[in-house]
Design a protein that fits this description.
This protein has 277 residues and is α/β, with parallel strands linked by helices. Helices cover 45% and strands 13% of the residues. It contains ten helices and seven strands. The strands form two sheets. A five-stranded mixed beta sheet has the order 3-4-5-6-7, sandwiched between helices. β1 (84-86) and β2 form a beta hairpin. α2 packs antiparallel against α6 (126-138), α3 (53-63) packs across α4 and α8 packs parallel to α9 (247-256). The longest helix is centred in the middle third of the chain and has 19 residues, at 142-160. The two termini are 25 Å apart.
Length: 277
Amino acid sequence: MKQKEDFERFMSQLKETNASLDFFCDFEKISRNVRQIAMKLNQLNYLIGQYDMETAVNELWRENPSVFNVLDILIAVRTSDGKKAINRRGEVQMIQRFFDSPEGVLEYLNDTGLQMLFQNRQVTNLVDFVFGVETGLDTNARKNRSGHIMENTVAAILRSEKIPYKQEVYSTDYPPLYVLGEDIKRFDFVITTKTTTYLVEVNFYSGGGSKLNEVARAYSELAPKINAVKGFEFVWITDGQGWLSAKNKLEEAFYVIPKVFNLTTIYDFVKTIKLEL
């Protein structure tokens, strides 16, 4: 039976971050994105320092009109985002539509302020410039990387302890889990021993928010359903000081779910598994 002091000890062990230095920027992905459009960016370098921008744009258009299709990234917008803007006629249009004609390109360059940057040579090389833009955009991917970091950390621990596991396994792979209803659940890890199949969810929260309460409530409802199925047990491995803002909800879940671990106590779980292998 878990005691209050067990929970307080759990809370005191929560880590401030799980990020290593490679978390902040994925330079491999950034470089790949830049390489894909580098040739067009080098052609657009022709516009840098041009006082007569209209003539320069028309010359480049006659040479290769498709080169202007990458202009959106210069204002940190991706074509896949489907962003829209109001043109000078007051019409809402996709940003990519500005690149359908030399007139549209000139309107885009002028109204975004890029023309001034080019003419004043405040930008000297668009490949380098876009590398910086891509680095900034990559920060938006940090949230997703945070979750993967936790999964990678747990996977590394299991490998180092020589514990076999599967990742991203669906509940439909186990017929006895029909008790979960029609909702298909994907588990981060599944560990099977001689006596038990452990269905494991892992996450890390460095900041607060309503999602933490939702996750704690969802797992509190899920765990009893799984644990009621013979041979199956739900395991939750979570960490991060974001839980300090949702302490009450986490405490409720801590008592409802028999196996809740953090990156410190995970080794208690490892010991249990090794005894059953």
